Amino acid sequence: MFTGIIKDVGRVRGVTRRQGGLRLRVEYSNTTEFSNLSVDESISINGVCQTVVALGEGWFEVDTVEETLAKTTLGSLQNGALVNLERALRPLDRLGGHFVLGHVDCAATVLEIRELGSSREFWIAFPEAFSPFIVSAGSITIDGISLTVAKLKEQLFAVAVIPFTFAHTTINELRPGRQVNLEFDILGKYVARQLGNASSSGQSDSKISETWLQEHGF
To answer: Which residues sit opposite 50 in a β-bridge?
Structure first.
């Protein structure tokens, strides 16, 4: 689990195809945060939860499988690309962003970037199927960055990016037409799921549940 508070901007230094997947080598510069990184540890790369499989001084490697490549933008990464990095949340860490699993829901497209005084407004188009999971003023993760939905329209939303976030993440690399990884708020997804179940279930579901409980000795 992560918070969406980016700890470093790393750089891709190796992209190797392996049996339909990819092995990515990533360099980091924040030695204070990443110096004690270990094999088998989870790490967020542009919002995608990956497992460290090898490491050395100032770098680590992950294996990205076909399923991840199909749902995220990791397959488009090339040597030299900048990526947002965050280590997994520890029980005693401050939760500065929101609960982020690193399980990307979909890729989305940057439509427009507007300068608003000291901040910037990013407009992003997302697939209609994910509309139930997003609300105005709710949390959303873009390439691993915890942000707040500032404006919401049908299949479009905007986030306001403060200067610090713009300067310390890869969001300053984005341009209209670029793809980004989206993870919708896990709490919103559970609520939407429960509401969907409540509206579609009836007496028959209740009977099935009772039968299952009786058959299994409950």
So the answer is: 43
The helix (run of H) or strand (run of E) holding residue 215 is: helix 203-215
155 within 8 A of 126, measured Cβ to Cβ? yes
Q: What is the pLDDT of residues 135-144, one digit of tens each?
A: 999 999 999 9
Q: How many Cα atoms are found within 13 Å in the side-chain-facing hemisphere of 137?
A: 0
Distance, CA of 181 to CA of 67 (rounded, Å): 14
What end-to-end distance do the CA atoms of the chain give, in Å? Answer: 33
Q: What are phi and psi of 51, to 5 degrees?
A: -110, 130
For 132, the token pair is: 């139930």
pTM here? 0.84
Q: How many CB atoms lie within 10 A of CB 108?
A: 22
What's the CA gap between 46 and 44, in Å, rounded? 6
The rounded distance, in Å, linking the Cα atoms of 159 and 128 is: 18
CA 218, CA 201: separation in Å to the nearest integer? 22
